[in-house]
Amino acid sequence: MSNKNSVTGKEVQTLFNRIAPVYDQMNNWLSFGQHRIWKLMAVKWSSPRPEDRAIDLCCGSGDLTQMLARQVPQGRVYGVDFSQSLLALASQRASAYSNISWVEADVLDLPFEANYFDCATMGYGLRNVRDIPRCLGELYRILKPGATAAILDFHRPRAPVMEAFQRWYLDNIVVPTAQSFGLTEEYAYIMESLEKFPTGKEQVKLALETGFKLATHYPIALGMMGVLVISKEIVF
Questions:
Q1: pLDDT tens figures, 8-60
Q2: Over the stretch 117-146, which tens digit does the pLDDT of each residue have?
Q3: NCBIfam families of this UniProt entry (predicted)?
Q4: Quick check: is 225 in a domain?
Q5: Which CATH number does the domain housing residue 62 bear?
Q6: 149 burial class (0-12, 13-18, 19+ CB within 10 angstroms)?
Q7: How many structural domains compose the chain?
Q8: Angle formed by the axes of helices 35-45 and 63-71, to 10°?
Q9: Quick one: which of 209, 203, 202, 211 has its CA closest to 233?
């Protein structure tokens, strides 16, 4: 199995710039509002503390970033994405938060020093990166020893009936809904990316190979979503 996405980074960046104007509305409709619950779970599993320096990678329109910011009221959160359009939307939506900084950057080459962050989140981003091991390596580099990251994304269910339902849902609900916004190509990409995305067990293996001391994948939403929770070893 290859962990490198056949779609180029520039193509993905262009895709998300096009999606930006309806990104939140689509997420709400297509998940029946449940994406907020899943993101809150990811925030909780990242173990944020009030004075932490935190980072939300592939932050999109910033809803997960805001959730994280509420957990570190005396700290600071960096919302990172390579889509200018989504970052502009995120900044506008989070204008009331003084503890968020927005950074345009590629998760494969983050502009932060090593051992800088106390915790990290990523929502629906790992599946879209060109090189998953390199992304995990960058995440490992910027986290402090003992820090935890929680990565939320789609997951391929193990149960055949749920796998069939997931495919049906994407083909018959997601893509037609996207078509009504003129975004058929953009959302049809989800199935292609999911088919190449490592399973939960494979994600755990990749994280451990990267150097993370602890790695657990939690299937949620009947196995159609999952959260990878990874922690960096404490150095004494």
A1: 456 555 555 555 555 556 666 556 567 789 999 999 999 999 999 999 999 98
A2: 999 999 989 998 999 999 999 999 999 999
A3: MenG_MenH_UbiE, PRK00216.1-5
A4: no
A5: 3.40.50.150
A6: buried
A7: 1
A8: 40
A9: 211
Mention every residue, 6+ apart, whose C-beta is less than 8 A from residue 20.
61, 83, 85, 86, 88, 89
Q: Is 178's pLDDT higher than 80?
A: no
154 belongs to a structural domain: yes
Distance CA 69, CA 32 (A): 24
* Confidence check: pLDDT of 181 > 90: no
Asked whether the predicted pLDDT for residue 64 surpasses 80, the reply is yes
Terminal alpha carbon distance of the chain: 37
Q: In angstroms, rounded to a whole number, what is the distance separating the alpha carbons of residues 48 and 119?
A: 6
Domain-embedded: residue 1 = no
Residue 226 falls inside a structural domain = no
According to the model, what pLDDT value does residue 36 have?
A: 85
Q: Which domain holds residue 135?
A: 9-219
Query: Based on the number of CB atoms within 10 Å of its own CB, is 50 exposed (0-12), middle (13-18) or buried (19 or more)?
Result: exposed
Residue 109: Cβ within 10 Å count: 9
**Global pTM value:** 0.84
Q: 205-208: long-range contacts (C-beta < 8 A, 24 or more apart)?
A: 206/3, 206/132, 206/133, 206/136, 207/136
Contact (Cβ atoms closer than 8 angstroms) between residue 55 and residue 48: no
